[in-house]
């Protein structure tokens, strides 16, 4: 009876997972196509669009990998028979999760440098040099993510023998965590940097809005509305990455407790669905193109 219930729960979560992929797939392709065409036309792409494209591509690959992996496990009865397959599975998810967080951190740095003004030589120097790092910094970011992810994937794959079941109760969650502590140390460091910088940018925006209101500027003026819109976007991005931060942590715990898998699947689905509109909101160019397509389709 219990096995039938788990089987039904697997199928239901798989259908929801697949549906969320079908819902978001056109949106991610839209982001990539618009930015690629813009780059081909102008031979350049601004920093936020470069990072948003990287985030869109990474999140889309993550979603496809998740659906493919869970579909394969469902057909195979939750069994993976070789440690090398486990290694590539762990490497894929570790790499994508770290890439997404690292790109989000670059985006937070970019927004912070644009919004926050500090009259200090070092800060001004960083403001000037940061745009020159793109797009060249993106490839080293992927390589750093790979170097950090490989040892974690090797350590985690050792917990699965050739006949291992996905949810092996004999494997302690604490042992698994200790074996990949370097990965999670860097992962937590990136998140802390991202969180602090985005929080500073949000506070700076609200202070500027308050100053504008203090100077008797109408709340409905374009300047105030632009600041308010930017603040909302950053708050959404902060909440989104808070969700994304817990996805790999719950992935680690789900190896010892099957029920956690369903919660993690739900968390990942919410993250993937919310990610798309927030990325679109972060680019005026994408919003403009989306409105043009909408008015063309709905006269």
UniProtKB/TrEMBL annotation:
Its domain of life?
Eukaryota
Membrane topology reported for the UniProt record: Multi-pass membrane protein
* Gene Ontology CC terms: membrane
Main subcellular localisation? membrane
Concerning InterPro entries, the annotation shows: TAS2R
Query: Is Glycoprotein included in the keywords of this UniProt record?
Result: no
What are the record keywords, sorted? G-protein coupled receptor, Membrane, Receptor, Sensory transduction, Taste, Transducer, Transmembrane, Transmembrane helix
Task: Kindly provide the name given to this protein in its UniProt entry.
Answer: Taste receptor type 2
Protein species of origin: Engystomops pustulosus (Tungara frog)
């Amino acid at each position: 009876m219990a096995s039938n219930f788990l089987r039904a729960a697997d199928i239901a979560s798989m259908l929801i997972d697949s549906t969320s992929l079908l819902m978001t797939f056109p949106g991610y392709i839209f982001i990539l196509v618009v930015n690629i065409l813009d780059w081909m036309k102008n031979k350049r792409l601004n920093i936020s669009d470069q990072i948003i494209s990287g985030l869109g591509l990474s999140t889309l690959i993550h979603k496809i990998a998740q659906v493919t992996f869970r579909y394969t496990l469902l057909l195979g009865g939750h069994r993976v028979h070789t440690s090398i397959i486990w290694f590539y599975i762990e490497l894929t998810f570790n790499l994508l999760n770290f890439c997404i967080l690292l790109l989000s951190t670059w985006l937070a740095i970019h927004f912070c440098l644009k919004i926050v003004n500090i009259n200090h030589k070092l800060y001004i120097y960083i403001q000037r040099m940061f745009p020159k790092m793109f797009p060249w910094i993106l490839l080293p970011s992927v390589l750093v993510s790979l170097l950090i992810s490989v040892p974690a994937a090797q350590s985690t794959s050792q917990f699965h023998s050739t006949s291992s079941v996905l949810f092996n109760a004999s494997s302690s969650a604490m042992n698994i965590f200790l074996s990949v502590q370097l990965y999670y140390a860097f992962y937590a460091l990136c998140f802390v940097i991202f969180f602090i910088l985005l929080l500073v940018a949000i506070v700076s925006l609200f202070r500027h809005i308050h100053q504008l209101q203090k100077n008797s500027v109408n709340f409905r003026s374009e300047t105030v509305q632009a600041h308010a819109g930017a603040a909302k976007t950053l708050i959404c991005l902060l909440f989104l990455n808070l969700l994304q931060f817990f996805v790999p942590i719950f992935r680690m715990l789900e190896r010892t407790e099957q029920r956690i898998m369903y919660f993690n699947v739900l968390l990942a689905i919410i993250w993937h669905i919310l990610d798309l509109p927030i990325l679109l909101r972060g680019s005026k160019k994408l919003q403009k193109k989306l409105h043009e397509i909408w008015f063309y389709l709905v006269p």
